[in-house]
Amino acid sequence: MKRIKLIIAYDGTNYCGWQIQDNGITVEEVLNRELSRLLQEDIAVIGASRTDSGVHALGNVAVFDTETKIPPEKISFALNQRLPEDIRIQDSCEVRPDFHPRFCNTIKTYEYRIWNNRFANPMLRLYTKFVYYRLDVDKMQQAAQCLIGEHDFKSFCSTRTQVENTVRTITDLQVFRENDLVTIRVSGTGFLYNMVRIIAGTLLKIGMGMIPPEKMKEILDACDRGKAGPKAEACGLTLIGIRYLDEETGVDNAGNCTEKNENSG
Question: Model-level pTM?
Answer without folding.
Answer: 0.91
